[in-house]
């Protein structure tokens, strides 16, 4: 029997969601966007977390920042300390001060802004005592050493090679303190070897499930919230004793985000 652990999340309502520029292969400003549908899908995700017994804080959406809904990119929070993002793209740069202000308001022990490009939990995922850190498209590899010094946690660098999976959280999901799911072809051969060594019992996602952002998921150790179209991955999770909960976040996928992208975990201890 897998045990669920209560989580504390920060989310941002997609009040101003739109696709008006392109900074990843999923974004096409020429395609129509239904902001009301995006809000409804986001609300379903928030209600799911609340129904599972998790705590959800929110940050006020800022006009002119259509990607602010992707709260995971705003920071990494461990042991009550927050390392706020420094975004690669100017279109998202103003999200960092908004997340910094909100995190300061939550009474964390320390809130600092990254010196190198670092896109928060988009590229930093905690698994047990290890901080898995992505690079290749967004976060600067120099940010890995910075994060290790700030958090005092071992950082494992992983390099992404497929532009569709531009953040680590699009290609890898942490399921519990010892288990991950990932899509091998998103990584360099060396990074795949590291993942095999660290996680020999990992769930390996299919290309089809990766392509619908099935790995952009959250887990409380028992329940795994993921995109509903990742059906083969959901079946693998059931076989491992997890309880998958599929949701439709298809409107947000137009900007290259889904469940995990919308969810920043606040770890106070």
Automatic annotation (TrEMBL):
Belongs to the DDAH family. SUPFAM superfamilies: Pentein. Keywords: Hydrolase. It comes from the Bacteria. This is Arginine deiminase-related protein. InterPro entries: DDAH-like (IPR033199). The lineage of its organism: Bacteria, Bacillati, Actinomycetota, Actinomycetes, Kitasatosporales. Pfam families: DDAH_eukar. PANTHER family: DIMETHYLARGININASE, DIMETHYLARGININE DIMETHYLAMINOHYDROLASE.
């Amino acid at each position: 029997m897998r045990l669920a652990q209560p989580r504390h999340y920060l989310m941002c309502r997609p009040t101003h969601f739109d696709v008006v520029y392109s900074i990843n292969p999923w974004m096409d400003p020429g395609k129509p966007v239904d902001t009301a549908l995006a809000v409804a899908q986001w609300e379903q995700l928030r209600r799911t977390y609340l129904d599972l017994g998790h705590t959800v804080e929110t940050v006020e959406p800022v006009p002119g920042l259509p990607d602010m809904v992707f709260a995971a990119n705003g920071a990494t929070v461990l042991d009550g300390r927050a390392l706020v993002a420094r975004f690669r793209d100017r279109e998202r740069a103003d999200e960092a001060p908004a997340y910094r202000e909100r995190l300061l308001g939550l009474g964390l022990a320390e809130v600092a802004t990254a010196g190198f490009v670092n896109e928060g939990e988009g590229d930093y995922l905690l698994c047990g005592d290890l901080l898995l850190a992505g690079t290749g498209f967004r976060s600067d590899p120099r940010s890995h050493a910075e994060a290790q010094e700030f958090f005092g946690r071992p950082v494992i660098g992983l390099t992404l090679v497929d532009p569709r999976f531009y953040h680590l959280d699009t290609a890898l999901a942490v399921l519990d303190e010892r288990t991950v799911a990932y899509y091998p072809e998103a990584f360099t051969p060396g990074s795949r070897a590291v993942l095999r060594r660290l996680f020999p019992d990992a769930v390996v996602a299919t290309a089809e499930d990766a392509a619908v952002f099935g790995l952009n998921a959250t887990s409380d150790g028992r329940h795994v919230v993921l995109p509903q179209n990742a059906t083969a991955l959901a079946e693998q999770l059931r076989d491992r004793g997890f309880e998958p909960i599929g949701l439709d976040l298809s409107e947000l996928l137009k900007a290259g985000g889904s469940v995990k992208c919308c969810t920043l975990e606040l770890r106070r201890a």
